[in-house]
Amino acid sequence: MRRRSTALAAVCTAALALSSCVDSRTDPPPPPVKVAAKDLYGTWRGWEGSSLTLEAGSRAVTVRLDGQEFAFDDAWRMTGSGSWRLLGPGAYRGGNTVGNGSVIHVEAGPRTGRGEEAKPTAPESGPSGPADPGDVTSRTEPPPEKAVWDIGVSKGEKGELRLFFRTSDPDVRDTYYLTRETTTASP
Known about the structure:
- This protein is mainly beta.
- It is built from 1 helix and 8 strands.
- The chain has one helix at 2-19; strands at residues 42-45, 51-54, 59-66, 77-87, 103-109, 147-155, 161-167, 174-180.
- An 8-stranded antiparallel β-barrel has the order 1-2-3-4-5-6-7-8.
- Strand 7 and strand 8 (174-180) form a beta hairpin.
- It is globular, with a radius of gyration of 20 Å.
């Protein structure tokens, strides 16, 4: 009887240790969402003052946007400009990390293209994105000359569009959400 108890305890301990490292690469992608480019124009806010602005003419502007996947672990935040394009449902071939609906491919660098530093905008107050994907004060490394994101499109509980990508190692990743900036009308 004592051997069974010891064996059971060993199995339970091993199962508990393994359960703390769950590989999220097999999580099902969100339901596919199909959008047109014009549905995405505007500024999308993330956590701690980050944003992505998608303009007509394929221009993208990033403000303190963290890297995707393993690039997030490099502790940089990108403020700059570049380009974007919309991939239709089924066109993205990078795995299930951003779903199989419409995907936004963004490439940006830390300068505007006119040789001047891109100017960050004031951070948006209020919660958006994950609660705490990392300590923002520790994200001080310089960004790369060019960064790439593949961003999925999903819908929130009220049917509103949300953009998302995954951060960090696939075993411990977080989902980084961006929500459309809303403007309030003046009375």
